[in-house]
Amino acid sequence: MLDRTRLVLSRRVGQQFSVGDTTITVVRIGNGLVRILVEAPRETPVSRPDAKKKGPKKPS
Description:
With 60 residues, this protein is mainly beta. It has a domain of 32 residues. The chain has 1 helix and 3 strands, in the order E-E-E-H. Strands 1-2-3 form a 3-stranded antiparallel β-sheet, with no helix packed on it. Strand 2 and strand 3 form a beta hairpin. The chain is extended. 0% of the residues are buried.
């Protein structure tokens, strides 16, 4: 079992926070969505469980 820490934050557009070498910035909030910018070293793995459930994006 992995030892994990949880953190819940409230941020406004333009505000940011860091986790290790990764900086997260709130870019936009609206229509029930939060758009974020993640700045991290290139070698940082990214996991998006929601993207794994969907098929490939169809060209528009």
